[in-house]
Design brief:
two-stranded antiparallel ribbon; 70% helix; mainly alpha
């Protein structure tokens, strides 16, 4: 009989093979659902919602705005530049348009992210847990976004490898990857904090500041800060980037918008959402009790915090938390302790559930 995808000759091939299998399941389910409903599944992956904005930036640069009926202005400066730069570069050297290039970037980055996630998991909890961590990231409830021309896979790949570099003491590499992540998503603030806080704690403990550590810490925020400064100079205001985000409804309000959203729901839905938030809090507590390394713990909590305290559209919050792969380490460790014949159907069931939810969201509801 064929071997299960995460019982392979090497743990790395098991991790990558298992991850790719989860994404293929998602694509197959989407294709079947799209065919049954007469929709274009491929267009939903590369030509919907934020993906359209990235393609426009790739093809025309920054400067596009849309004024909504209520007077709010949505400007493309809300989107960080690395992803559209890669789209533009690939479409210039390969026979494909920017939208297709976006899919190629996202899919390739997904594999790179799974690799980095596996390395982090293996470093912390052993090879088997690392394999399962990578596979579980592929069955995250909103993992369908990993198959879209979105930035989540690129950001997660850069973040995972940056954290792995910190765990291995390779500070300059960690800082460079963090800087690249800062050109990808604003959530890089959590990664910058992870690198910086880990460095401070290490300096206090060892009472010395190695030159490579200092260089890595100085490199880490340059991407994020560089783009914020660029928007400020372009718009002639030091707070321009934050003003642009506020116009999109993405300002930081300390969780007020989330609380209002919950209060406005019918009580059964509000109860369910509170239970989901309770589960999230329990996972964070498990990460702390598990004794995860400081950089991974700070990054995970930081991503969750940033995702919850903003005033963004509520449906986007699970997607915004997806890069916090450390949340999946406790269940990965738990699964690593059971037999393969038990773990395989659990992962397969999660993959099918994630795929079905993804197809439903892509074909029938609003933006993720």
């Amino acid at each position: 009989m064929p071997r299960p995808v995460f019982v392979s000759r090497t743990p790395l091939s098991a991790a990558l093979g298992g991850y790719v299998a989860t994404r293929l399941i998602g694509l197959v389910v989407l294709a079947i659902a799209a065919a049954a409903s007469g929709e274009d599944g491929l267009h939903r992956l590369k030509g919907r919602w934020d993906a359209v904005w990235y393609v426009r930036i790739a093809e025309h640069g920054y400067g596009y705005e849309v004024t909504l009926p209520n007077g709010d202005v949505h400007a493309d400066l809300a989107f960080f530049p690395l992803f559209p730069v890669l789209e533009r570069g690939l479409s210039a050297v390969l026979p494909m348009d920017a939208a297709t290039a976006g899919l190629l970037v996202a899919w390739s980055a997904g594999v790179a992210a799974a690799w980095g996630i596996y390395r982090c998991g293996a470093e912390v909890a052993g090879e088997r847990a690392g394999v399962l961590l990578a596979v579980l990231w592929g069955v995250y409830p909103t993992a369908f976004v990993q198959s879209m021309a979105y930035t989540e896979t690129l950001f997660t790949a850069l973040a995972a490898w940056s954290l792995y570099a910190v765990l291995r003491g390779r500070w300059i590499l960690a800082g460079a990857l963090c800087a690249a992540a800062g050109l990808t998503r604003p959530t890089a603030a959590a990664l910058i904090a992870a690198v910086g806080i880990t460095a401070v704690v290490t300096v206090v403990r060892e009472r010395r500041l190695p030159a490579r550590m200092a260089a890595g810490v100085l490199l880490a925020p340059l991407g994020w800060l560089g783009y914020v400064v660029y928007v400020g100079v372009r718009q002639g205001s030091a707070t321009a980037y934050f003003d642009v985000q506020a116009a999109w409804g993405n300002s930081i309000d300390g969780g007020v918008a989330l609380a209002r959203f919950i209060v406005g729901l019918p009580w059964p839905a509000a109860l369910g959402l509170c239970a989901a938030l309770g589960l999230l809090g329990w996972l964070v507590a498990l990460c702390v009790r598990q004794g995860q390394p400081l950089p991974l713990l700070v990054y995970t909590i930081g991503v969750v915090f940033v995702s919850l305290v903003g005033a963004a559209y509520f449906g986007s919050r699970p997607r915004l938390m997806m890069p916090a792969f450390g949340l999946l380490l406790p269940p990965a460790v738990a699964l690593a302790r059971v037999r393969t014949r038990t773990a395989v159907p659990v992962v397969a069931g999660l993959a099918l559930a994630s795929a079905a939810y993804g197809a439903f969201t892509l074909l029938g509801s609003g933006p993720p």
